[in-house]
């Protein structure tokens, strides 16, 4: 009897056994993690990893799969042999948490690391109670919640939620987080369940904080000022301590002021705190305040200035949570016989604050204080601005201090106008929950105006090494530093000089500038061999090139020699924002087409300032520009200011 030939697939068949399944993990974003599977079978085993969307993982053909956690993803591994056997591992989750990972050990082994602790809560009775705790871990940690020391059944996730809280849900809560490596505990937090009438109001928060600071000092047709330099610089530093994104600018023409304000308005949005500060010449007409640009001619005309109420109008249109305008400028009345046209009012939105350095038809003064020039209003504003108090209370303290200053008694008094309906403070915390997309857009735009060129290290043919670094005094004023780091074998008496192309003059070098500018400069670098201030960057239309000239004496020939190198730093700081290309300004350009163009960074050196007087220790200097005698003009029934055009200039157009 002849038997049939045996089928090779039916002999020597053994099943495949997975002896170790992969485990789920919870890791920070971009963390590398290895998933492992171990199996036993006959012959060579093949592996293929898959994701939950049934796609094969590239390079996922080994028992170990290393992935970078960029999103939460499910994985499974198929193991097969050459005998038509196949088996799948357990599904595992690589959970990615895009949260703060500071404190995570450099050589983290996977033990539970608590990234988010639960927070104390005061909850109305009958409303939802939510406590959250998040931890990294390999394997994924196990959670167990406790109330008053007792474990809560079924409360084993990272979020504890009770839909309708009652009095019995009050108490002390904590969470145990554990995996096979270790167990960690959160700090206990108290949960208070109160009646509706017992609940304290929620503390105000901002979704972001943005500030624009402008200081005008070098006027073409009006007296120059001293204090805006230090006032803007010091206030910018203080606002940054309060969490504001700050853009600070000096010496702007009207077009540049409007363009900067336009960019500022774009950064505002629902829930944002917006602050606009101006130091320089100004005046008041028919209840409106006007800021004088450095190119404003004599006499004052609204079309040559910027209307403050327009700025506030635009801020309110962005539905900010707090809009603050602080003006260290005069409010003397001019052109009271002009016919102002109406600003279209918005619905009452509240939470707007005006802080005026002085009252109506009065002047604001700047003085020399301890060797530096300062506006008296800003001097006391900087003294109090960091306090965690309602913004109007801070301004009241400024008013009280200024009122006691003997230099301006009877001549200057702070005025505060506001529609605050909530106790909001400039020190309120920022909470971005639900606003992260808008926050990232604002962050990119703000960084564009504050990005510094990178440090450069240059090696010359003679062997000398020179380091060129940069610092921002303001968003449109860059300082370049050059330092000799290494001397050549045959060089001595090395010196460095810096220049730029296009050439940019130093607006701080005019007559009467105070010595404190040097202190500003040298705080930014340790005793450099050479410095170069690059001003009015808002007018830069091409890449800025720094020329570094190295001068030295050759030890053999004893001759003085020079070598040069160039560093292209692009369009640094606010230059990248192209403020000279403000949208919808053709009509304004036509109006001013007869005006002479000013050279970059050279506001006033072409002719002397009209009134550049250094104030003595007890001699306040007014911020009221001296206009020429009033010129008789023929008026029609049209207002001299085209409000509709100006409103269009300010309005956001996207």
UniProtKB/TrEMBL annotation:
Q: Kindly give the SUPFAM superfamilies that the UniProt entry links to this protein.
A: Caspase-like, Immunoglobulin
Segments of this protein annotated with the region Disordered: 585-604, 632-654
Residue ranges of the Ig-like domain?
112-192
Q: Name one GO biological process term.
A: proteolysis
According to the UniProt entry, which residue ranges have a biased composition of type Basic and acidic residues? 645-654
The UniProt GO MF terms for this protein read: cysteine-type endopeptidase activity
Database matches in InterPro entries: Caspase-like_dom_sf (IPR029030), Caspase-related_regulators (IPR052039), Ig-like_dom (IPR007110), Ig-like_dom_sf (IPR036179), Ig-like_fold (IPR013783), Ig_sub (IPR003599), Ig_sub2 (IPR003598), MALT1_Ig (IPR041077)
Superkingdom in the source lineage? Eukaryota
Every copy of the Caspase family p20 domain together lies at 207-284
Cross-referenced PANTHER family, in alphabetical order? MUCOSA ASSOCIATED LYMPHOID TISSUE LYMPHOMA TRANSLOCATION PROTEIN 1/PARACASPASE, MUCOSA-ASSOCIATED LYMPHOID TISSUE LYMPHOMA TRANSLOCATION PROTEIN 1-LIKE
Identify this protein by name. Mucosa-associated lymphoid tissue lymphoma translocation protein 1-like
Organism of derivation: Seriola dumerili
Q: What is the lineage of its organism?
A: Eukaryota, Metazoa, Chordata, Craniata, Vertebrata
């Amino acid at each position: 009897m002849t038997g049939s030939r045996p089928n090779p697939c039916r002999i020597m068949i053994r099943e495949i056994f997975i002896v170790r399944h992969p485990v789920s993990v919870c890791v920070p974003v971009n963390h590398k993690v290895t998933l492992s599977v171990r199996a036993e079978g006959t012959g060579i085993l093949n592996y293929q990893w898959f994701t939950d969307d049934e796609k094969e993982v590239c390079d996922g053909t080994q028992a170990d799969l290393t992935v970078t956690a960029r999103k939460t993803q499910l994985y499974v591994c198929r193991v097969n042999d050459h005998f038509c056997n196949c088996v799948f591992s357990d599904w595992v989750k690589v959970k990615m948490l895009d949260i703060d990972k500071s404190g995570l050990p450099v050589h983290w082994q996977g033990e539970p690391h608590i990234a988010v602790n639960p927070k104390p809560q005061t909850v109305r009775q009958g409303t939802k109670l939510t406590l959250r705790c998040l931890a990294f871990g390999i394997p994924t940690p196990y959670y167990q919640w406790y109330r008053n020391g007792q474990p809560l059944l079924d409360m084993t996730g990272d979020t504890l939620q009770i839909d309708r809280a009652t009095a019995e849900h009050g108490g002390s809560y904590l969470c145990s987080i554990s995996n096979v490596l270790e167990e960690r505990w959160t700090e206990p937090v108290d949960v208070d369940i109160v009646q509706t009438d017992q609940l304290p109001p929620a503390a105000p928060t901002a979704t972001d904080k943005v500030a624009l600071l402008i200081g005008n000092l070098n006027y073409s047709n009006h007296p120059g000022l001293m204090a805006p330099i230090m006032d803007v610089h010091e206030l910018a530093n203080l606002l940054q301590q309060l969490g504001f994104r700050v853009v600070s600018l000096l010496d702007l023409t009207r077009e540049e002021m409007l363009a900067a304000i336009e960019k500022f308005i774009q950064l505002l949005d629902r829930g944002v705190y917006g602050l606009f500060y101006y130091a320089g010449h100004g005046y008041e007409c028919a209840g409106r305040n006007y800021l004088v640009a450095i190119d404003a001619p004599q006499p004052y005309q609204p079309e040559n200035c910027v209307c403050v109420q327009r700025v506030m109008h635009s801020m309110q249109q962005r539905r900010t949570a707090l809009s603050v305008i602080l003006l260290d400028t005069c409010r003397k009345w001019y052109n009271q016989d002009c016919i102002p046209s109406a600003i279209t009012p918005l619905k009452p939105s509240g939470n707007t604050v005006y802080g005026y350095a002085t009252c109506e038809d009065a002047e604001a003064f700047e003085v020399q204080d301890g060797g530096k020039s300062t506006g008296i209003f800003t001097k006391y504003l900087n003294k109090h601005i960091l306090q965690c108090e309602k913004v109007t209370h801070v301004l009241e303290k400024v008013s009280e201090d200024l009122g006691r200053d003997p230099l301006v008694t009877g001549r200057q008094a702070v005025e505060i106008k506001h529609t605050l309906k909530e106790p909001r403070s400039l020190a309120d915390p920022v909470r971005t929950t639900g606003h992260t997309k808008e926050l990232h857009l604002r962050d990119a735009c703000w960084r564009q105006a504050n990005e510094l060129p990178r440090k450069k290290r240059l090696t010359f043919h003679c062997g000398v090494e020179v380091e060129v670094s940069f610092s921002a005094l303001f968003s449109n004023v860059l300082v370049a530093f050059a330092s000799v780091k290494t001397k050549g074998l045959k060089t001595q008496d090395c010196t460095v000089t810096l220049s730029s192309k296009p050439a940019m003059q130093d607006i701080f070098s005019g007559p009467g500038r105070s010595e404190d500018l040097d202190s500003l400069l040298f705080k930014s670098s340790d005793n450099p061999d050479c410095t170069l201030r690059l001003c009015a960057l808002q007018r830069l239309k091409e890449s800025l090139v720094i020329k570094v000239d190295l001068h030295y004496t050759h030890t053999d020939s004893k001759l003085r020699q020079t070598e040069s190198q160039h560093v292209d730093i692009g369009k640094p700081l606010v230059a990248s924002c192209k403020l000279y290309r403000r949208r919808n300004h053709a009509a304004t350009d036509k109006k001013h087409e007869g005006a002479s163009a000013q050279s970059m960074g050279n506001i006033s050196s072409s002719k002397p300032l009209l009134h550049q007087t250094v104030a003595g220790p007890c001699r306040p200097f007014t911020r009221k520009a001296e206009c020429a005698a009033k010129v008789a003009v023929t008026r029609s029934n049209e207002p001299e200011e085209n409000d509709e055009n100006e409103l269009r200039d300010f309005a956001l157009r996207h």
